[in-house]
Amino acid sequence: MLAGIELGGTKVLVLRARGGTVVDRETIATTTPRETLSRAVAVLKRWHAEAPIAAIGIGSFGPLRLDRRAPDFGVMLPTPKPGWAGADIFGTLTAPFDCPAMIDTDVNGAALAELRWGAGALGDAPSDSLCYITIGTGVGAGFAFNGRTVHGAMHPEIGHIRVPRAPGDGFAGHCPFHGDCIEGLVSGPALAHRFGMPGHEIDPADPRWDDVASDIAHLVSTILLGTAARQVLIGGGVGMGRTGLLAKVRRNVVVQLGGYLPHVDDSSIGRIVMTPLLGDQAGPLGAVALAMDALSAEGVS
């Protein structure tokens, strides 16, 4: 039996799985670190008493310290989420259990699940490299290359990349750190600021969506050029919730790349820039995939 925890800003999903098949799940509201993590541990202890947990995978919102050599490994770094900076995510969730465990960002986990069981597994030639972008309250991205997630000094923070602006777009941006970085341009709160109304009230025909599509496309083009990912998946409430936006993004990507990447053209772009095949299950299944990798790594060692 494997355990997966997807720790989000508003809710936590705790899962029990047999291999890649989820057999139980419980949802917990994200409140304070003490309350939230203790409730998750209580679920794991109950399940562990019924059938021993062989490995634990944790996919969490960030930023996180993911360097295992660091004294604060698995700890939440400074975050806008009140009260969560300095929370020991990994230590609190794994200390009661004598089993291998792995922690990563929720978007890295989602990328791994999509590579293994979702969009990356489509067709006769499975993908070896994939980027998963979520556009919602913020903008984040995870990368899975050659079966492993990507991080180094930190984990990727592509939400704070700046992109070329569409001609005539005077929106100043909404990020408190960088103004018009991509998160400050296309996240849910940024769109509400840009359009002057909540996201669900914005007219799909509003011409300012063309500027939003251009911004997202520049991010996708940067990822394709900078990482050589074979696929870029766009998820989250904005990414998956706007009919027609993905088509505009695809057209913009082809134009922006100008034929420089020979594998990206009008006929291939639909297979390269997609919505997540696993939908909103990519994150939870990502936590399970991390547990599977923790168990596999233990066997190798």
TrEMBL record:
Gene3D superfamilies found in the cross-reference section: 3.30.420.40
* Keyword Cell inner membrane annotated: no
Q: Report the cofactors.
A: Mg(2+)
List the catalysed reactions: D-fructose + ATP = D-fructose 6-phosphate + ADP + H(+)
> Which Pfam families does the annotation name?
ROK (PF00480)
- Keywords for this protein: Magnesium, Metal-binding, Zinc
- Taxonomically, which superkingdom? Bacteria
Q: What is its EC number?
A: 2.7.1.4
Reply yes or no: does the keyword Metal-binding apply.
yes
Official protein name in the record: fructokinase
Q: Which organism is it from?
A: Sphingobium fuliginis (strain ATCC 27551)
Q: What is the lineage of its organism?
A: Bacteria, Pseudomonadati, Pseudomonadota, Alphaproteobacteria, Sphingomonadales
